[in-house]
Design goal:
Blueprint: E1 11-12, E2 15-16, H1 24-28, H2 35-48, E3 51-54, E4 58-61, E5 65-68, E6 71-81, E7 92-97, E8 100-109, E9 124-130, E10 133-140, E11 147-162, E12 169-172, E13 176-185, E14 192-195, E15 205-215, E16 222-225, E17 227-228, E18 231-238, E19 245-248, E20 259-260, E21 263-272, E22 280-285, E23 291-294, E24 297-301, E25 304-305, E26 308-317, E27 321-327, E28 331-332, E29 335-342, E30 354-358, E31 361-371, E32 378-380, E33 385-396, E34 409-410, E35 418-427, H3 436-439, E36 447-449, E37 452-456, H4 457-460
């Protein structure tokens, strides 16, 4: 490699071409390491206000390539990491003000080891960047996440990601305001994820996933594990190992905040929960107890609150699915509007337990259709509290042969913290409207009127 070339030797208009820095033999050498060449070109581009153009070559690099506050374009370019160290440093890093990577560019890796956990092992690593843009063809085979954004603000991401050992798209540590488009296939962990860890001191917010498509993710399809005002629009989620849609606070090794004021508007979840482990649902919402600190502000609850999920279909079940839709403890104000849950029998001998299971506070399930479920249609757990409302529901083709007579709704007789359970316009498998006899497994006294069916807390107290 000859780094003595004058800068004008590889300048073309306002573009800098790193291939002009090397000899023909180096360019044709498939084992040539492009790390220093591309980084030198990127530094010059920042100094001169120029842009970088990546040629249509397979460019192997053994280290991190940094694009700091510059625009980089490629036409048929491939950046292929050759790093084999135990904590590989092979990311393409975007940082600074308005960095961008555009065009028919493929980011790949020769990595054949196990999953890694350092940021530098991602395919693309956006760090401490504002007004960033990633708009490329493909990211594949990274040792951790495909595209990792940390402390990144006001961005745009569009790419296809496949065969990563961690998440496909991962936003963390107070990222804000990004529009994300893409497809993630065969990822080692979540396909699309927003994660706000407690040590971050704040939540990610304003991330929008537009039309995300996920296939065979190693964990969840789309996960919001701590985040605020995160939006998912028209998702297609196929055969995730665990939940298809997951809004949560988590505890254990990875302590996070809750999901707050998030919106899911449109999703199809097909054959979720492919792992045979138990405990998953097609759509799952949960929180954690206690408070979490915020940088420069008062602590907030770790509950998942005021989330809205609408226009969602859950169809089919993997061997690990227990419920089609589950709203767990330490959640409040969850609204589900227009949901269809069907064909959840699944291949497991254990089978799916419920179409819908409720354990949180102040929940509304509106405009729902349930069919072909091997257990109770709706189950309310004793931890549920506040008001639970079901409106405009249709229940048909349930597997009632395996059920007790009244298990279409499984509601325990002792719900000490429930203020009311409201049923309005519910059609049962017999095409009859909901009545007290049909609804309650334990013969709890109830009331019905022209507006529907409800049970008050005074009738639910034990003797």
């Amino acid at each position: 490699m000859s780094l003595g070339h004058p800068i004008f030797a590889y300048r073309s208009g306002n573009f800098l071409d790193p291939s002009s820095l090397i000899t023909v033999s180096e360019k044709n050498n498939p084992y040539f390491d492009w790390t220093d060449v591309i980084n030198l070109c990127a530094k010059e581009a920042k100094l001169t206000g120029s842009r970088v153009i990546l040629p249509p070559l397979d460019m192997r690099h053994g280290g991190i390539i940094v694009f700091d506050s510059i625009k980089v374009y490629g036409v048929g370019a491939k950046l292929i990491s050759t790093s084999t160290q135990s904590d590989p440093h092979h990311a393409i890093m975007l940082t600074g003000r308005a960095p961008g990577l555009f065009g028919t560019v493929t980011i790949a890796s020769d990595w054949t080891g196990s999953r890694q956990y350092n940021d530098e092992s991602a395919g693309i690593w956006v760090l401490d960047a504002t007004n960033y843009r990633v708009d490329i063809s493909l990211v594949k085979n990274s040792a951790s996440a495909g595209i990792l954004c940390r402390r990144a603000f006001d961005g745009f991401v569009r790419a296809n990601v496949q065969t990563t050992l961690a998440d496909g798209f991962h936003f963390t540590e107070r990222c804000e305001n990004a529009d994300v488009y893409g497809r993630a296939r065969d990822t080692g962990d979540d396909a699309f994820a927003v994660v706000s860890y407690l040590p971050d001191g704040g939540l990610c917010r304003g991330i929008v996933f537009h039309n995300p498509v996920t296939e065979r993710s190693g964990s969840r399809g789309v996960a919001i594990v701590g985040g605020e005002h995160v939006t998912v629009v028209d998702a297609e989620i196929y055969e995730p190992a665990r939940a298809g849609l997951y809004l949560a606070a988590e505890t254990g090794d990875f302590e996070t905040y809750g999901a707050r004021d998030c919106v899911i508007n449109g999703a199809i979840v097909r054959n979720a929960c492919q792992l045979s482990e138990t405990g998953y649902a097609g759509v799952q919402v949960l929180g954690q107890p206690g408070l979490a600190n915020l940088i420069g502000d008062d602590p907030i609850s770790r509950m998942s609150v005021n989330n809205s999920i609408s226009n969602v279909t859950v169809i089919g079940a993997g061997p690990g699915m227990e419920d089609g839709l589950r709203i767990e403890e330490f959640t409040s104000g969850t609204t589900i509007d227009t949901v269809s849950i069907a064909q959840l029998s699944g291949p497991s001998d254990r089978g799916t337990r419920y179409a819908i299971e409720i354990a949180g506070a102040d929940i509304a399930i509106l405009n729902f259709n349930v069919s072909d479920i091997p257990a109770a249609g709706i189950h309310i757990l004793p931890t549920a509290n506040g008001k639970v409302a079901f409106q405009n529901g249709r229940m048909k083709d349930l597997n009632t042969n395996s059920l007790s007579e009244n298990a279409i709704f499984d509601i325990p007789g002792y719900l000490k913290d429930i203020t009311a359970i409201v049923f309005t316009d519910i059609i049962l498998p017999t095409n009859e409207s909901l009545s007290a006899k049909d609804a309650l497994k334990n013969n709890v006294p109830a009331h019905a009127d022209q507006y529907g069916f409800w049970v008050g807390v005074s009738e639910l107290a034990p003797d």
